[in-house]
Amino acid sequence: MPTTLGQNQYGKAENRVVRITRDGATHHIKDLNVSVALSGDMEEVHYSGSNASVLPTDTTKNTVYAFAKEHGIESAEQFGIHLARHFVTSQEPIRRARIRIEEYAWERIGTPGEGEHSFVRKGQETRLAQITFDGEEWEVVSGLKDLTVMNSTDSEFRGFVKDGYTTLQETRDRVLATSVSGRWRFNWTGDGQRTPDWDTSYEEIRKHLLQAFAETYSRSLQQTMYHMGARIIDHRDEIDEVRFSLPNSHHFLVDLEPFGLKNDTADGAVYFASDRPYGLIEATILRDGCEARIPVDLTNL
Ligand SMILES: O=c1[nH]c(=O)c2[nH]c(=O)[nH]c2[nH]1
């Protein structure tokens, strides 16, 4: 049956590129999701399988990371224009490049002037509440999910166990990022006790966990997480128990050596933000003498 090739395009989709620029102690983040789609004289690869006109999708990915390092990311538009022009003008068979970019915005945590390397992603987290009443006692567990935070320095991970399967290198300066899912249980049980101001409590707890994330010099996500919970218990009398489930959102330094580019943390760097697999770090933090009642698996709450 005679057939003809219609519209076609190809490229690497969803390159998660994070560019951190260091201006002394003040860091700046550009966080993009870049998708490249190229088209042009691509009949042969489809008809005969000849790759003679095919710039690999892997190369398009490398170009995104290398351009981020070499030229920086001023804006999504400027970055996209630069990439599109490059593909169309440097490769004869490529006639059209479509660069789609999603940009994730970050806000600083804390006061300007002190350690400006902690960020919370813009856009509201989801606030959660679970209320249980058995006719006598109340149990209120509140929380949040999808509160995405990042420290662009003051995080290390070293001194860990090494066995025959360990390849992870020790690091004294890494990106620490997570999307916080947390629950906290109130000690309010009804019966004439003063009712907490639920909204103030939520705002204060959110503030304390963000400040603990920003202010802890991190030796592991486990340690940072414990500090976040302990700070809530220390500052909020109405809370007896906190549970966190924190994915360790790995940011890998991209190897740009093959393109003659040095990519290290010292002067700001480009990272590949990986979404899976991820470390999953979970714990309950309890006020002394109190018992744990929040389920271990937070997807059940
Ligand atoms: O903060 C961390 N805790 C770990 O337990 C761990 N494991 C790992 O590979 N990286 C990290 N990072």
Describe the structure in your own words.
With 301 residues, the protein is of the alpha+beta class. The protein folds into 2 domains: 15-104; 107-164 and 172-250 and 273-300, Urate Oxidase. It has 5 helices and 12 strands. Strands 4, 5, 6, 7, 8, 9 and 12 form a 7-stranded antiparallel beta sheet that branches. A 5-stranded antiparallel beta sheet has the order 3-2-1-11-10. Strand 1 (15-23) and strand 2 form a beta hairpin. It is elongated and about 80 Å long. Uric acid is lined by residues 157, 168, 220-222, 248, 279.
Question: Summary?
Answer:
One of its GO terms (biological process) is purine nucleobase metabolic process. With 301 residues, the chain is of the alpha+beta class. Helix content is 23%, strand content 34%.
The arrangement of helices and strands along the chain is EEHHHEEEEEEHHEEEE
Structural class: alpha+beta
Distance, first to last CA: 57 Å
Q: How would you name the CATH homologous superfamily of the largest domain?
A: Urate Oxidase
Secondary-structure arrangement, i.e. CATH architecture of the largest domain: Roll
The Cα radius of gyration reads: 24 Å
* Mean pLDDT level: 95
Helix content: 10-25%
Note poorly predicted spans: none
Instruction: Based on Cα principal axes, name the global outline.
Output: elongated
CATH top level label of the largest domain: Alpha Beta
Function: Catalyzes the oxidation of uric acid to 5-hydroxyisourate, which is further processed to form (S)-allantoin.
Protein name: Uricase
Family: Belongs to the uricase family.
Enzyme class: oxidoreductase
